[in-house]
Amino acid sequence: MKKEVVCPHCGKPYSCFRNPAPTADVVIYEPGRGVVIIRRRHAPVGFALPGGFIDEGEQAEAAAVREMREETGLDVELTGLLGVYSRPKRDPRQHTLTVVYTGRARNPEAITAGDDAAHAAFYPLNGLPAPLVFDHAEILEHFRQVLSGQRAVAAVQPLACHHLPSLDAQGRPDVDASGAACGCRAPAGPAGSAAAVAPGEAVPGKSGKEFC
Fold it and tell me: Is the pTM above the cut of 0.85?
């Protein structure tokens, strides 16, 4: 949405865009341990799924893995896309749009709080701490539905290759940029659609890693 504002320094009007800020969260699940929940260091104070803002030029999947490492110390493999949550009032600070993944920790014993997290631990789904901030209670309920087979997760987009072809002056690939040359095609279902992933099952291919 474009908004007309006036520069406080020169008094001239100019246009700017007001868009939701993109974030990435992960439901890190370990059978027998539960899900990873952090206690937030900053407002809004409370308990939450680990996650954070996606940086400019950063792929959502890369941001999710990075935020998990920064906030929990865990090396996380993304196993599915749970959903996108974008209600304008979901975050009291500003309008955010979050991409929520499911994942598993390769090093669950290494869990430790860092960055914006004051505490990080595994909690059983029937014993979550309170209060859960944002809409994370709803997100975790959707994850319970995944575990019970009532809801499916989608495949995770593989991280972009570093050697994809450059674009021409019109923004078109100089050659086929679909990954055919290097074999970097994302897993797909019928007619090229993303394949649904069974609960707790890793996405086929090299989920959470670069294909090249």
Answer: no
